[in-house]
Write a structure and sequence with these properties.
The chain is an alpha/beta fold and 376 residues long. It has 2 domains: 152 residues, VC0802-like (2-Layer Sandwich), CATH 3.30.2130; 162 residues, Vaccinia Virus protein VP39 (Rossmann fold). The chain contains 10 helices and 14 strands. Helix 4 links the parallel strand 5 and strand 6.
Amino acid sequence: MNYRIVVTTAFGVESVTKNELRKLGVRDPKAIEGSISFDGTEEDVMRCNLFLRTAERVYITVGSFHAETFDDLFDGIKALPWQNYIPRDGKVIVTGKSKKSKLFALSSCQSIIKKAILVRLMPIYRLRTFDESGADFNVEFSINEDRVTVLLNTSGKGLHKRGYRTLVAPAQMKETLAAAIVSLSDMTPEKPFIDPFCGCGTFVIEAALSALNIAPGKNRDFDFLHWPFFKKETYERLLNEATEGEKQDQELHFCGYDLDPAVIKLALYHARQAGIENKIHFQVRDVRDLSSRFSEGTLCCDPPYGKRLGDLKEAQDLTAILGERYRALGKKWSAYVISAVPDFERHFGKKADKNRKFFNANELCRLYSYFPERQQ
């Protein structure tokens, strides 16, 4: 069966995810406001969930129609072929949003949509009641300028939940955003990679997973795995493909440092959970002591902004120290720093070669990129 697939992303990540999709063989992906859509198959849905590093969720488009009244909404939902997706015992969960539309009462819209789905399904399955004892079917609607779009969430929990980061650390970055920043960097498996503010280890772990070609969704569950119309043998084949593509023999020099011993313990635990504890190194170290025996490499980090951790003056001072230590590493080192510190480049001591906007935990930030100096 063919689907209109929608992959959602964080703000600023669309182009990165689009490149990932092309590498997965997707033709003509179209990006619009935090989502990318394309035509694909059941296998494409599975492949995206398993292999995409930077996407938030993967959806199937059920339908789209115009609605200005609750009757319009009910009739439009009821007309959609829900029997192609939801079995007789499916648990229907409806969430959504509305913008610039006559229908804006979300709780009422949710109730009407669920009722319309069940009214559609009960006579088809010859049921008087729908017990909803089976798998979850998360239906998400958006109403924009009276246009209703209905999606089915195939992922379940967000794709940033890889399964390895089970303990909570302060001010931790989403795995998907970390993966996007790593993707934008010049990280390669052959070069050293350092995060001097590693926290619970996300940057280093995501960089290592990418360098070792380990599928980010390999060790987690997805909603579609519990749906009867998705073939389990197809997913097993993709899992085997993922395992066969791993580069477990690759030697890495990837290190994470942090001043806080407690978060270094978290980082070590997460590395074990990810199955790569023997590939990467974490150590308690102050950024003032940052150094490397290697003449070239990639520095990638998310230092404190003075909002979630510490104060602004402390963040500015740390930015200055980071800039000084980065320059001391040598001219062949690159740096990719995400920060919300005002006038970052002045405090860092060098104008960035490139910068771009991101949201990190709802905070508008910029990724400042510093490239190695070209050798004459």
